[in-house]
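Entry for the shared binder. Reason: the reviewer on the internal report wants the predicted structure included alongside the sequence.
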Amino acid sequence: MGLRFEGAISEADLRALREAMASITQELGRCFMITDMSLCTGIDAAARKYMAQWSKDGKDGVDVIAGTAVYGLSFALRAITMLAFNAIKLLGQKQVDVVFLKDEAEARRWVDEQRTILFPERAHVAE
């Protein structure tokens, strides 16, 4: 699943993402995310709170995310994003595999490598 955020990430953005992920995971079970944050300016407080709650939820929680490759972050936003994902790990007690990469090409290579490792029977499935 490819994402591109522009401006501040809101709770509404995350609710829409959750709905889209539910559709994808009904078919595939789990998904990878490649996230372009080059035009993102932050994550608002309501969105951070929603992320924490989402991580605690059941079948459509963050456990359906096989891994997330993020690129295009400024240094400050990378720090904020890392704090948010660390909070998810602590509050939700679920592991979220997130890597920060230079660009989309690196992100796609990482997802391809992870897909081959985690799901060798589905390594051929496209994004």
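Summary line for the report: The first strand starts at residue 2 and ends at 9.
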